[in-house]
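We now fix the convention by which a protein and its fold are recorded. These numbers are not coordinates but entries in a learned vocabulary of local backbone shapes. A record is reproduced here so that you can trace the correspondence yourselves:
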Amino acid sequence: MPNFSEGRNPETIQAIADAVREAGVLIHHLSWDYDHHRMVLAFSGTPAQVKRAVLRAGAEAIARIDLRVHQGVHPRIGAVDVVPFVPLSGLTLEQAVAFSHQVARAFARRLGVPVYMYEYSAGEGRIRDLPTLRRGQFEGWVGRPLEGVRRPDYGPAQLHPTAGATVMGVRDPLIAFNVNLATQDVNLAKAIARRIREERDHNPDLFGVRALGLWLPTRQLVQVSLNLTRTARTLAPGETGTSLVRVLRYVQAQAESLGTQIHSTELIGVILAEDAIQALRDALQNADLQVAQLVASGIL
């Protein structure tokens, strides 16, 4: 599910999406946002198809996106900012990690962009988490040598002058979910995000939740941007994942305590069926709902 630092130029967005589509993969989701200045694609396919899609889309993005003139509310270090791989079936975790390194090596060699491996793909002693790898962003590292822990896993030891660096690797599924508040006071969104970060280690409803508070100038709204990392696929037997509905209710309660309310929500990318059914169970208070009861209308 690659994230590109482009949410404003329709021609660039279309060119990247076309490059992915022509690689033979199945596109599940495409979205972009002016304020985030970011584009998200979710697609699936065989390893060969996915590799081809990443390389082709990367070439389009790097040729078209110039981070020297890029400004958006979402943190980023590269034109192709992050490329997460989530194995759905047919690959073991070890095989998926080996595949991610194969793609990263080819990406760096062909496109001249340094690549950092993260999450399961990170090597021993290396930085594993995305926020740390992205700290300082493009502006903080362009023109500086990438040494020590900042040395990339593949490619040149300095950022590409216009495309920065790319973070790539195998990670668990997550739910990218945004809650927009009916206020123009970004401090309220930041306060809610800060409370989530402060409470997530001891509040079971917030385990594994990452949060940022952002201002969306074109919509004249503020946003609590959330990543839920404890999903059904990541849990050991008997463990309970973080409930999307309970997180939403927490944000709602915090917003009301600060004198505002929820305006709308957004699901970015895809949600696995196991997590969708859990959200439906929580919302409907029906613990017996099963994934098999979710049926796409187009199959009849």
About this structure: Helices lie at 10-21, 47-64, 93-111, 130-134, 137-141, 186-199, 244-257, 273-284. The chain has a mean pLDDT of 95.
